[in-house]
Write a structure and sequence with these properties.
alpha/beta; seven-stranded mixed beta sheet; 14 helices; Rossmann fold
Length: about 300
């Protein structure tokens, strides 16, 4: 199980009242919500291995170099000049909770993983792509991770929690194909290609003007790869592109030439784990966990997680 940690604790922060505080008044709603989410996931899915994946760089330089508008609206400055390396805006009441979350994970003995210069999506993409032993379940509220689903060499699935755990969607190639109208045989890759064409305002991706989700899905279904589609834009004898659509794609040629590494998650990021990823059946550091629980008022949430591990 691969957790998109930031995606999850942001959702916990907004889903649990910030009136839940530690004895000293520090908000701990994200800590408790995130801990409860892990307890529930462990109870329901019983993973033997688990990694909480971290954003060591939420706006990587290689993506910004390719497309300066990438996530530019989330940092100070004009969209085309927003600096690289400026932290993503995090609510004041959430910032102090992130170190507590990491302390709890360490005390429990849950592995964390990150890659310098890469996002959590890339950590998940790399660990999923290189796994050859166990089925993989990624947990995230980020639609971009639909591109990692596959059947071989081991099944990779996404538990999409964009609407919360209670309404989570369990997605594999068949489900992504049905949901978005892309070919099942390469549903993950095709989803990424559809996203490139459609664009995504939340990530600063303009997409191709005049090409919406349905048109994008239809287009990627006609081609076996992104390269094949791009070559068809130049080859006017390729009848798979109608002249009006070819004109729209040709007008967006500069964007199409650089967008692929921006949208596709990395499968070769230099991922480092802080410990082995075997999920413990009991806390690795029980005294430390007890001290954290008392200091931050995490009693019920920590108890539920410990019970889930022992289950």
């Amino acid at each position: 199980m691969l957790l998109d940690s930031a995606s999850m604790y942001f959702r916990a922060f907004y889903g649990v009242p910030d009136t839940i505080t530690a004895p000293d008044g520090t908000p701990v709603n994200a800590v408790r919500g995130f801990t409860d989410m892990i307890a529930r996931l462990v109870t329901e899915h019983r993973p033997s291995r688990l990694v909480a994946c971290l954003d060591l760089d939420w706006r990587p330089a290689f993506r910004v170099k390719a497309l300066p508008s990438y996530k530019a609206h989330r940092v100070p400055g004009e969209p085309e000049t927003a600096p690289v390396g400026v932290p993503e805006e995090v609510p004041d009441k959430l910032s102090p909770q992130v170190p507590i979350i990491l302390d709890v994970l360490a005390a429990v003995g849950i592995a964390t993983g990150g890659a310098a210069g890469y996002e959590a999506d890339d950590v998940i993409g790399t660990l999923a792509a290189t796994e050859r032993t166990d089925p993989v379940l990624a947990v995230s509220g980020d639609r971009d991770l639909m591109q990692i689903v596959r059947d071989e060499p081991v099944p990779v699935r996404l538990l999409y929690v964009g609407r919360g755990l209670a309404k989570a969607e369990h997605l594999g190639p068949a489900e992504v194909a049905e949901k978005y109208g892309v070919p099942k045989a390469r549903a993950g890759e095709a989803y990424a290609e559809m996203a490139m064409l459609r664009g995504d305002p939340s990530d600063g991706l303009p997409g191709v003007p005049g090409v919406g989700a349905k048109t994008a899905a239809t287009l990627v279904g006609r081609f076996g790869s992104w390269l094949e589609l791009c070559e068809a834009v130049i080859d006017r004898t390729d009848t798979r592109l109608a002249p009006p659509v070819r004109a729209k794609l040709a007008a967006a040629a500069p964007y199409l030439a650089v967008v692929e590494p921006v949208v596709r998650v990395a499968v070769d990021a230099p991922v480092q784990l802080d410990r082995p990823d075997a999920l413990p059946s009991a806390p690795a550091h029980p005294r430390k966990l007890a001290a954290l629980s008392e200091q931050w008022g995490l009693g019920g949430s920590v108890d539920r997680l410990v019970k889930a591990l022992a289950g």
